[in-house]
Request: fold
Amino acid sequence: MKRIFSLFVAVATALSMGIISTSAMTAGQENFEKAVNPPGLELYWVNTASIEQNISFSGNTATCTGVIRGNANVNSITATFTLRRVNSNGTLTTLKTWNSSSNSRTLNFSGTYSTVSKGETYRLSVSAVVTTSGGNSENVSDSFSKTY
Reply:
């Protein structure tokens, strides 16, 4: 019985660590996060099917897009998307924040920021609340980085 409980605690800890947002981390903290959550480890959400994000560049403009898909029982999603520049010392500078919501199981987002520079790395992060028709809410987060 002790071994089953220990296994349950270990799995629960591993899952909870996988939902940590890297949006406010320095490069050193992000490296630690990668060690704790190695690439290829998939996060498991109860009500959220997927989160996709992208940044595309044209001239001095970054176009940020995102899609959050809930499972069949989801009826609303509210999200905050944040674009940040990754500075040379690993710190992050917030450039723009957008709020978005949907009264369905899918949230589609698109926003632009018009002062980007080639050679810089940008990070798009999202923090969202996914809510089911039964009123159960799930907090999810994700981030995506791209160099122009």
About this structure: Helices lie at 2-17, 27-36. The CA atoms of residues 1 and 7 lie 10 Å apart. Residues 2-17 form the longest helix (16 residues).
